[in-house]
Amino acid sequence: MSVLRNLENKIAGLVEGAFGRAFASEIRPVELARRLTREMDRHRHASLASTYVPNEYVVWLSPADRRALQPIEAGLVEELSAYLLEHARAEHLALVSHPRIELRTDKRLALGECGIEAKLVGGPERRARAEDPGIIPRPAPTPVGVGGGSAAQAYISVGGQRTPIGPRGMVIGRSPEADLVLSSSEVSRRHAEIVPEDRAWLLVDLGSTNGIRLNARPVGVPTQLTDGDVIEVGPYELTFEAY
Q1: Which of 204, 40, 201 is closest to 190 using CA atoms?
Q2: Which H/E stretch holds residue 213?
Q3: Which are the contacts of 192, defined by CB distance < 8 A and separation ≥ 6?
Q4: How far apart are alpha carbons 202 and 240 in whole angstroms?
Q5: Biggest alpha carbon distance in the chain?
Q6: What per-residue confidence (pLDDT) applies to 151?
Q7: DSSP state, residue 72
Q8: CA 201, CA 180: separation in Å to the nearest integer?
Q9: Backbone angles phi, psi at 132, to 5 degrees
Q10: Which of 10, 22, 193, 216 fits as disulfide partner to 71, beta carbons 3.0 to 4.6 Å?
Q11: Distance from C-alpha of 241 to C-alpha of 127, rounded to nearest angstrom
């Protein structure tokens, strides 16, 4: 089963599982996921090195649909955001931050109708507009290691256990499908991710409920990691090591 199909099934599970009794809307979560990916694909911005896509989405719903979705809104937004992230990875599309999704109400919409506003928001977009609206430069973080074209070998240590970070990065969360599973109600299913960027490693908040802290400071945007950094995820302290 593909990752996207698996995420689609999880979104469907929000309705068909424990939350099914609270849902009576014509708008189905899986359909929202498909519409969001279409909007992502429609608003691609090609640069010299990458193809960027929107990282912020506003979904406008009818009052009746919004009321019906309220009992599952937090979980739904988290799964939709994860769905968009995996879609971008599968299509080799670049994001300046983790996808952010907000549900809003539009009284002009009838039951089953929705509208989606997609925007690319962040520093690279602002710089591109000042220079060339069609070019969005790729960030160039300082390398963690020396030499070579890939990130240095890195590890995460937590509770005395040391786990290597794979070449594609590491997803940290409560879900059994995460690369590093942290079993706490304070940890979101997909809480954070460490991803390679050129020769560096970046820490990314995956839209978690309680956020993440790096060296005792909140992290709101993708942030470069250095050897010895301490990442706080819920009640856990994770130490980043790179060689």
Answers
A1: 204
A2: strand 212-214
A3: 171, 172, 173, 203, 204, 205, 206, 208, 212, 231, 233
A4: 11
A5: 58
A6: 66
A7: G
A8: 16
A9: -155, 115
A10: 22
A11: 32
